[in-house]
Amino acid sequence: MAQKLIVIGAGMASGRMLEHLIDAAPDAYDITLFNAEPRGNYNRLMLSPVLAGEKTYAEIVTHDDAWYAARGVTCRFGEKVLRVDTAARIVTGEQGALPYDKLVIATGSSPFIIPLPGHDLQGVIPYRDLEDTEAMMALGAGKRAVIIGGGLLGLEAAAGMAARGTEVDVVHIMGHLMERQLDEAAGYLLRRSLTQKGIRVHCKANSKQILSDGKGHVRALQLDDGTELPCDLLVMAVGIRPSTALGKAAGLEVNRGIVVNDQMVTSDPDVLALGECVEHAGAIFGLVAPLYDQAKVLAQTLLGQKATFVQKELATKLKVTGCDLFSAGDFAEGEGREDIVFRDPARGVYKRLILEGNRLIGAVLYGDTGDGAWFHGLIKDATDVGEMRETLIFGPAYQGGPAADPMAAVAALPRDAEICGCNGVCKGQIEDAINAGAGDLGAVRARTKASASCGTCTGLVEQILGATLGDAFVLPTAQPICGCTDLSHEDLRRLIKSQELKSQEAVWQELGWTSRNGCHVCRPAVNFYLLADWPLDYVDDPQSRFVNERNHANIQKDGTYSVMPRMWGGMTTPQELMAIARAAETYGATVKVTGGQRIDLLGVRKEDLPAIWADLNAAGMVSGHAYSKGLRTVKTCVGSEWCRFGTQDSTGLGIALERRLWGSWTPHKVKLGVSGCPRNCAEATCKDVGIVCVDSGFQIGVAGAAGMDVKETERLVDVRTEEEAIDWTVAFIQLYREHAKYLDRPYKWVAKVGLDWVKETLADAAERQALVERFDLFQSVYQKDPWAERAKPEAARRFHPLADLTLEAAE
Amino acid sequence: MSWIDIGHIDDIPLRGARLVKTPVGCVAIFRTAEAEVFAASNACPHKAGPLSEGIVHGGKVTCPLHNWVFDLNTGEAQGADEGRIATYPVRLDAGRILLDGHAVGKRSAA
Questions:
Q1: Which of A81, A472, A612, B103 is the most buried (most CB within 10 A)?
Q2: What's the mean pLDDT in A186-199?
Q3: Residues of A marked as binding?
Q4: Which helix (H) or strand (E) holds A160?
Q5: Which residues contact A470 (CB under 8 A, 6 or more apart)?
Q6: Which residues of A touch B60 (CB under 8 A)?
């Protein structure tokens, strides 16, 4: 007969514990699970991505009702436990009592609410569960929120709400943000980056009282100095405290948390506890990694196996998009402690290492956190770093010898090094999964959950794959372009510039191509790079272009083509429409209005292309480049010209941009949108460059997408005049042309180089001007109508068969 | 053999192709190097993509619709794909391209 196990609390710790327990011994216990929240387990750490709109609630559920049902766990969700009688071994819930043989308390923690006057008003919430997250999400654009608390949780809440368009003030009592994890300088960089996202940060700010609107709802927060910060929602994110009431009432030993020993057993041998409600060796727990360790130990204890929970050194990563932050160990100043600091303000990189003697005891990284895990390992292992002190701050790549290989750094990590903070997965688990057959990232994710949540550790997981599998695994980051070369796109771009390679032959010879003249994968890329870097020296090679760009029309599944004349900013005239209609009739084309404000003529035979182009040219139209890795459309609304809400002439700006940019070649297609007001009728916020006109000028956003991925633009800059808007747009596109990998849309490229770098580069007026000039130089060569050129008889001949032997046969 | 003059090599772009209509259907004439031509069926066995519109590299062509690659010497599909395109005898004589009329279903030369 199975023993009766009762678990109180369905949080992350208890969920993981049940997984271990049931995996190891499915029938050992008859399990009942109580949870006050009306649902099973979800990944609380992922509430921030839910708030920011990066994930949905469904995606963060770790154990749903079906999971429990399949494992025979009786769930009593939405039912509070009233008391525990340890003498009689009975748990009493709202729906009745139940005996147990073993009890696990996993009641977690409660958010701390500062008892400020007004803290009980409506609209004052903590940031703890899904209901709180939903309240924050529901607030939305145009409303205001104040967050008390500039720690990890508060800042994730702030960034999430700001991303949804809420105006956010963060009030922090200390001199800089995240003072428990960061030093002042890194705190400053973080503050600057948040300010750039439009979040107002108030440090050294004492909250005095919360003001009411007179109807029981929050109206504003008042600070000590009298400042009032108006708000529709006030979020307190000032910390948590262990929920110990149940344990205390049951007579268990409780200090700050319910006291447990190394086996996770409380002062009662049949009662165990884990998670944020416990205290172990004087410490309480807020991060997830130790909770997962506890879960494992507790499950083993329940199965009668010997296991010991050991506290480990912890590292913190901030999950706020665009803020790369890492902190580990102790970084307070003190006797006998020395700092090594590295600063690169232009790139927004800051690194600080704290040494005591020859040991690294703390590290703070901002802007470039790639070496975080390595530093963390040195801290945990108390490695003697005396030998590498001079180059320590540059990370493992500079420690000479085999460490120049990025793989060596990860290979040197101990098995218990935490790789995935979201899911508490350490290196050893990943290695075990790989040795058991997980041969790629997807398989590792499926088996260990590593890198399956926020994804910031994906690079590390790939390196572990590489280190474990050796030659069998190719690191995706250094993937060669194709089988003709070992070079990556990035290396090829760099070498074409530095070695001044100006022809395809030069690339093949100098860079050791293994094929005679490339292949269908590398040739279009090489052609583009040469074209983009040497517009005056290199001659475009149509034979290295995909059929659409070579024939200046889109090939369709039956081998016919579609023809799409340009419509500047979506404007046309009755004359143009009549010419299009006539062309459609003459060449038997199907007429389709596209998603990009143009008219598509489908089903045209290749031989007819030069003739239909000539007809459309005669009516004043040019190629719409609907086929090109280049500028496609500039979508517009009617703007101030016609719309009662339009703030600027969005149509005019769209036309001006299209006239400047058309005919250009870029790494991938580029689509623009200009909306006349924030109602955004031109859907500018999911374009490669999207401009939203407002009363004060133009908000330029970049790196949006509405294809395989859907992504909102990120703000590049706000400018006052149309001229500036055009300059910034042109400079951005030129920067993209000069740096991106072929076939990366701007959003992918920006994700690689970082929006901050793009912003900083373009913010330099001289650099911006130089980019614009280089773009215009390119356009002086390449901005011409390809239709007109190919409609001439000499070129048109190429669109016809070389010979027709069927005619001769008929003679 | 029955050689038919179908044009000059310079009528075909280097690393490009042109079509010839024949009684057996469209035949693509590929030019892979300064003076090297091949003749093969224009239709990819996968979804009938027009191979004359593909990128020509080395002695191979890539179908423009779904990237199947064929060796022009043998007509065999490369890599994991399985299939074959018909190839036809073709030769150069003083810059003129001569295609075998018998092979493409044409009885006699002019």
A1: A612
A2: 85
A3: 637, 643, 677, 681
A4: helix A152-163
A5: none
A6: 519
Residue A787's φ and ψ, nearest 5 degrees, are -65, -50
Contact A550 B54 (CB under 8 A): no
Secondary structure (3-state) at A289: helix
Position A188 scores a pLDDT of 84
C-alpha span between B87 and B103 (Å, rounded): 9
Chain A residue closest in CA terms to B9: A802
Partners of residue A809 in chain B, C-beta under 8 Å: 23, 106-107
Structure token pair of residue A182: 């960061």
Whether B46 has its CB under 8 Å from any CB of chain A: the answer is no
CA distance A806 to chain B (A): 5
In the predicted structure, residue A670 carries a pLDDT above the cut 90: yes
- If you ran DSSP here, which 8-state letter would residue A323 be given? B
Q: Specify which residues A349 forms β-bridges with.
A: A344
DSSP A151: S
Do A412 and A464 touch, CB atoms closer than 8 A?
Answer: no
Q: Write down the residue that tokens 């709180």 correspond to.
A: A132
B104 touches A: beta carbon within 8 Å: yes
* Beta-bridge mates of residue A343: A350
CA distance to partner chain A, nearest, from residue B68 (Å)? 10
pLDDT of residue A3: 92
Are the C-beta atoms of residues A17 and A298 closer than 8 Å to each other?
yes
Question: Rounded to an integer, what distance in angstroms lies between the CA atom of residue A180 and that of residue A191?
Answer: 15
**Contact predicate A742/A748, CB 8 Å:** no
Q: What residues of A are designated binding site for siroheme?
A: 681
Q: What percent of chain B has pLDDT over 90?
A: 76
Residue for token pair 């991925």: A709
Q: Which residues fall within 8 angstroms of residue B80, CB to CB, at 6 or more apart?
A: none
How far apart (Å, rounded) are the C-alpha atoms in residues A364 and A341?
10
Query: Are the CB atoms for A298 and A274 separated by under 8 Å?
Result: yes
Cβ count within 10 A of residue A644: 6
Mutate to test the interface with A, among B3, B41, B53 (most CBs of A within 10 A): B53
Residue of A nearest to B44 (CA): A559
Chain B contact for A560, CB < 8 A?
no
The arrangement of strands across the sheet holding A670-675 comes to A631-636, A670-675, A689-694, A697-702, A714-719
User: Chain A: nearest CA to B49, how far in angstroms?
Assistant: 7
CA A279 to chain centre: 35
In whole angstroms, give the CA distance from residue A677 to residue A698.
9
CB within 8 Å of chain A, chain B residues 26-45: 26, 29, 33
Sign of the dihedral defined by the CA atoms of residues A247, A252, A255, A257, in that order: negative
User: What is this structure's pTM?
Assistant: 0.53
Contact A805 B6 (CB under 8 A): yes
Angle between helices A441-448 and A427-435 (to 10 degrees): 120
Pairing of strands A803-804, A218-223: unpaired
- The complex's ipTM works out to 0.92
Pick from B20, B53, B106: which is nearest to A809 by CB? B106
Residue A619 has pLDDT above 60, yes or no: yes
Q: Which residue has the tokens 């040494």?
A: A355
Task: Give the residue among A262, A620, A288 at the shortest CA–CA distance from A423.
Answer: A288
SS3 A480: coil
Q: How far is A543 from chain B (nearest CA, A)?
A: 6
Contact at CB, B54 and A801, closer than 8 angstroms = no
What's the 3-state SS for A681-713? Answer: CCCHHHCCEEEEEECCEEEEEECCEECCCEECC
**Which contiguous run of DSSP H or E holds residue A104?**
strand A102-105
Q: Is A261 on the interface with B (CB under 8 A)?
A: no
Give B42 to chain A, closest Cα distance, Å. 11
Report the distance separating Cα A522 and Cα A520, nearest Å.
Answer: 6
- Counted across chains A and B, CB pairs separated by less than 8 A come out at 92
